[in-house]
Please model this.
Amino acid sequence: MNELSVPLSKPDELPQSSGQRRAANWMARGDWLAFVVLMALLWILPLALGGFYLYLGAVIAIYAIAALGLQVMVGLAGQLSLGHAAFLGIGAYTATLLEKGIGLPFLAALAAAGLAAAVAGLVMAQLIRLSGIYFKIATFGFGIVVYQAMTNWSSLTGGHVGVRGIPPIEIFGVSFTTRVDLFILEMITLTVIYALLVRLCHGRVGRAFRAIGQNEAAARSVGIPVNRYRMGVITLGSGIAGIAGAFLPHLMRFLSPESFTWYDSLIMLIMITVGGIKMLPGAVVGAALLTIIPEYLRDFTQYKMLVFGVMLIASMALLPEGVVGAFDRLIKRFVPRRGQGS
Amino acid sequence: MNVTILLLSGLAVGCIYGLVAAGFSMVYRAMGLVNFAQGDIMMVGAFIGYSIIVLGPGLPFWLVIILAALVTAALGFLIERFAFWPAVKRGADQIYLVLLTLGVGIVLSNGARIIWGANPLVYPTPITHETIMLANYPVPGVYPYIAAVMILLVIGLQFFFTRSWMGLALRASADDPQTASIMGVNLGFASALSFAIASGIGAVAGVLYAPITFASPDMGLIGIKAFAAAALGTLGSIPGALIGGLIVGVGETIGGQLLAPEYQDSMAFLLMIAILMVKPTGLMAGGPRT
Amino acid sequence: MSAPILELRNVSRRFGGLMAVNDVSMTVQPRTIHGLIGPNGAGKSTAFDLISGLQSTSGGDIILNGAPITGWPIEARVIAGICRTFQTSKLFEEMTVKDIVMTGCHVHGRLGMFGSMFAVGRKFREERDFSERATRLLEFVGLSAEIDAPIADLSYGKRRLVEIARALATEPKLLLLDEVSSGLNPVETAAVGQIIRTLVAGGMTIVLVEHDMKFVMDLCERITVLNFGSRIADGTPSEIANDEAVITAYLGHAQENRTPRRDLRRAALQGATEA
Model:
């Protein structure tokens, strides 16, 4: 290692102002603050309000997990995946078929779902050899191919007809049959995954992901193994979607390929865009928004996609940093940044 | 099924894919924009053609094609001006632009659904029900039109882009915007024009495809396979797009029928992935803006 | 003379029919400042691309500390001790200055994806270590006031310094600076010159691609000159200033432009006497 023998002071002697340190921590704390607030809201509101709101909360939780996976890929590392729903589906089918077929307990099925989706993600990641736009089109194609496989491989998946009779969840002898139980399980998973992702962002690898997303050439020039990390982040994001997928059939009490079409991939992209791309909380907020809003358009189901499309365009034009970004900007206006030039 | 019929059918649908793909590649070459709404523009073009037929029942088919192309081109011009150009001009990043085109596509397809209804519409022209005899095989009556249009368009585009001032100006602004702009080419107008032409071509594809099946809001999904065609023919290359379309059309029809009919829709992408693994920037790699 | 830290042996780079770099050989001695100059289009940046690994050679070998690195991917070269800055600074536009420099520390870290998620003590120490290195480097280049500023707030000259600090974070043995003075005012240029001198005094080797003649003549101990992809001269600043081929390359035929040649000689002699 080359010793940089320049006249630098030793670390302990460094007159690093407490203001500077505070500012740096504030950003890290900002992430955790958002985490605590969002998780608190998502835990408390559905449980307190119950009934339909509990159902909504359960749906939001699933898509929040999946959207977080997408956010890490797209928002952080800049790897746009247009077939994310495929991994949701792979997770759903893997878990359900194992639970039904060989009676695998839920926790193991959950792990298997994540693993299967991660492996599929790794396969798709081989396509990163293709430059930028070719890769995006390939991810799109991947989603379509997987959807077709789900629909046509009837012997395995039951095709369009779908799978019924989802086995109830039992973990270490404790039954989780009611909706509240399912919601709690999902929220535990969401909380854990969200927290782990926040930790990831605060570390060396998370920083490398962000570097890749913001300027791939520059990242490469400082020795970040770009290709390996691209594959890694895609595998991670897809695996997370798979875990989310494992819960879906239990909530819907039904499993069919129609939950994993190209439109569903698109919806998840809209979630992270409207919520706030490049920010983890944006995935959760986006999932919430895009789940709640259609409920108020119950009478207008045929307009659902149109509304989503308009929301997408509107948010890009008016709020390019998404809801969370706008919120963040608002806060920064009131909280002065400490440690600047002190 | 007879191989000849399959081949003809594959070529016909391949021409359709090729047309949509050519529009797609054209926009990519001119603006660096990946227009995921291209399939939806094709679909809107098909519906506009439908309305033209309804409004003017006696019109010859070729006139319907031209009129639909013009109207859709105008629509494309507007979309580009107001939705895309502002974003492209301020250098928005790729992800933003992709999502923007996706959003526009959703609005187009769902807007069409509202205007024309969600049910597939049969083109009310005699062409739809005609079959003609081609080498002793009965084929849909629109096939000669497809063939004619393809040939005319290939020649026309070639002529336009190499001989006409406007075509050269478009190519210049795509290849070297700064120099073109210094030479007096209005970049915004050039982009809008490229987009309009691409939309017109997409509409032509839609109007040609509708008599074979229906005009339906799901047509956009068919256009999606055109992306695969454009990609494997190298994005930005019009000849590549046309060839790519034919490859996808024939490959999916023959491969689908002979191997696995249920996976026909996947064929396009499997073909694309296979070709891209071997030639990562498509068949026509080595040209500008790869 | 000690063994060279960097050697280019008959290195070429061809694009179709065009030879961007044509059979260039060059040696760089350790702990020196070496200049790589030439008129526009001479192939200097391409040469840097070849050394740093951004492009692969069409022929010839690149040797680092006696070991061939031809064909090595960029990551491997950075770990081996080469780092390169760009003519237009490539920075991470949404990060703070400190974060950007910390990305340069990446090669010296150990925690992977799962480590970042699950480790506690190790992670805290690694992050603190990176943070301190980044802070020290930013102070070294004179940006202590901007450590936590978002990069978007910084001026052109300061962005250049951030890029240098980031490159230094990789702890290179060989630093390649591509037109580092371009766009800088004289004060900023002088500051960069000082940074370069301090680094080399501390043991680093630096190769500069440059257009600013005075800057190069002042700083470099040895200069290689390229034109149309080929090496046309290699020597000390005063040798280069008097080399016919160099003068012709830059100024056309020597007879027509007497004044600039005088300036060139004067600058070289000034540099030689000041050294």
